[in-house]
Amino acid sequence: MGSEQQFKHLESTESARCNHCALHALCLPGIVGCFNSALGPVVADDIKVNKGQSLYRSGDRADNLYVVKSGAFKIMTPLCGHDAHVSGFRMPGDLVGACGLTCGQYAFTAQALDRATVCRLPLDRLREAQLRQPMLTQGLLQALSNQAAQAQRQVTRTNLPAIARFALFIKDISSHHQKRHLSESEFDLPMARTDIADFLGLAPETISRLIASLTKKTVLKVEGKTVYILDKPALENACEALD
Hints:
By secondary structure, this protein is α+β, with helices and mostly antiparallel strands. It has two domains: 3-150, Jelly Rolls, CATH 2.60.120.10; 158-239, Winged helix-like DNA-binding domain superfamily/Winged helix DNA-binding domain (Arc Repressor Mutant, subunit A, Orthogonal Bundle). The protein has nine helices and eleven strands. It has helices spanning 3-14, 16-19, 28-31, 123-132, 135-157, 162-179, 193-200, 204-216, 232-239, and strands at 45-49, 54-56, 64-70, 73-79, 82-90, 95-96, 109-112, 116-122, 186-188, 220-223, 226-229. Strand 4 and strand 5 form a beta hairpin. It is globular, with a radius of gyration of 19 Å.
């Protein structure tokens, strides 16, 4: 069966694959409101990744993009002579592996924070699908733009006080859950405090101190990995702290 026939077969048998997914609105078609564009024919398979396992490592050949279906990943940037720096997190609905689009190799390492599942999008299939559904290109560009904007915001936050950096981090996670139509005031943090500290450019002890402070002020309650936002206006004020 030729590539044209193969793709049409996939379209006819798997067109509902993404439309029926709970994360459809957060994925490439949904980002631009193109709900009739399905990635089903593009998705090769679902891949399960165990906690601590790498989906890919820096320097690996980049043949696929991925979308997180469940679980979460930390993105690690290799540093010469030092341990890899945690430069971001990817949660359900997020695109993973875009760093490999430009040079054919992944620039970062994506490591599962817990048991995770991703949809694998082979780049050759994606390119073919874009010819038939140009809106997918817009969705991809929008997703990449969102990630670039997030990275830029994180750079600008390095000059903020520790309390503001941490409060903004919690607010970002809350907003992500809200977009998924989940609770924005009660959610789990899959990442360790050491990873949060690395990402925010703070010491792990500082993260513990900030949690204790916000708990004492009844802004947050933290039980294990579960965070409860008790006072959203107070959290907003903490995001704007200047000293």
